[in-house]
Amino acid sequence: MFTRTIDQPRTSGEFILIFVRAMLLKACFVYRDCVVENNMHEGAVAMNQAVVTMTSCHVRDNKAPGFEATHEGTFILDRCHVHENVGGIWLWENGRCDVRGTVIIEHKAPAILCDPGANTQPKFSRGTIIHGFVMANDADLDKLTPERGVAWQKPEAAPSLPGEDGAFKFEYNMFTRKQ
Fold it and tell me: Domain for residue 171, yes or no?
């Protein structure tokens, strides 16, 4: 198991630019008090049983989802702010998330997307606030209740999924994977 911890105190006017791709088998990354912003792709990706833990972090203004988990990749978010990305937390295949006390505000694409044909495992609790559209099956939607400590403000209209441009532009490469 590979483990890496990054502890960065926030100072006024200073931002830390991090682009995490936790694609190692059973890798474990821990980030505290950091900012992930202005990436041309996702803010963070967890694949292949990798676990990414973020505490008191801001993930914003990325050109793809703030978080994307697939192949049993897991995100643990505690007291984070996820906003103005092209999507918030997207789970594919056996992707997982454990979200606590986190604010998710997304208007351009779904704030939460759980692959309806897969075995995603989202968990939302303890003061999580979601402003935006949620695309998930009924079992996952049932997890977004005030009884579980989740406040969900539904938008008036559903956003569309991103088009095939920017981070979502298809460019064939037999060594990479397209969602």
Answer: no
Strand order in the sheet with 67-69: 20-22, 44-46, 67-69, 89-91, 112-114, 134-135
CA proximity to 74, closest of 51, 102, 91: 51
pLDDT in tens, 61-118: 998 999 999 989 999 999 999 999 999 999 999 999 999 999 999 988 999 999 888 8
Structural domain count of the chain: 1
| DSSP 8-state symbol, 166 | G
Interior angle at CA 62, CA 149 and CA 152, nearest 5: 20
Question: Which of these, 86, 68, 73, lies nearest to 132 by C-alpha position?
Answer: 86
Q: How far apart are CA 27 and CA 39, in angstroms?
A: 22
Cβ atoms within 10 A of the Cβ of 121, count?
17
What sign results for the dihedral spanned by CA atoms 18, 28, 48, 133?
negative
Please tell me the pTM assigned to this model: 0.79
Residue range of the domain that includes 133: 2-8+16-156
Token couple for 88: 């918030």
103-105, strands of its sheet edge to edge:
35-37, 58-60, 81-83, 103-105, 128-131, 150-153
* 165 part of a folded domain: no
Give the list of residues 6+ apart from residue 42 with CB closer than 8 angstroms, or none. Answer: 62, 64, 65, 66, 67, 68, 167
